[in-house]
Amino acid sequence: MWVSNQVPLYSFVFLVALGIDYNIILISRFLEERRRHPVKKAVTIAVENTGGVISSAGIILAATFAVLMTQPIQILFVFGFIVAMGILLDTFIIRGVLMPALIVLIEKDKKGQTESRAE
User: Fold this and answer.
1) Whole-number average pLDDT of the chain
2) Owning domain of residue 47
3) Cα 80 to Cα 1, 2, 83, 93, distances in angstroms
4) Running DSSP on this structure, what letter comes out for residue 36?
5) Nearest alpha-carbon partner for 56 in 23, 26, 85, 88
6) Above 90 in pLDDT, residue 2?
7) Which of 8, 20, 60, 119 is the most buried (most CB within 10 A)?
8) What total of structural domains would you count in the chain?
9) Is 116 contained in some domain?
10) Does this UniProt record's set of keywords contain Transmembrane helix (predicted)?
């Protein structure tokens, strides 16, 4: 089975460009909640409030690209499959699990930092 060497490049560009939107939604909500809550609580609220929007948008977008799999052209089938599966992985694994975990791991509570310095 021969596939054009441009398919991985185009797939990568599409997945990165489409995944950025979900990051913006999640992180902007987290920053809003971060003003009032500690990190873990802010992440929980952000994921709860944006989960439905991100999930539904991801499913619709994946279904849109999956339509390319119905075409008889092999390159379109492969491109549609890669992008549809990538969007689903991005929607449910990256935005639902990995991003919240990374935020909690990297972001520090401002109270915790000042208390540890005082001791």
Assistant:
1) 87
2) 6-108
3) 16, 16, 5, 19
4) T
5) 88
6) no
7) 8
8) 1
9) no
10) yes
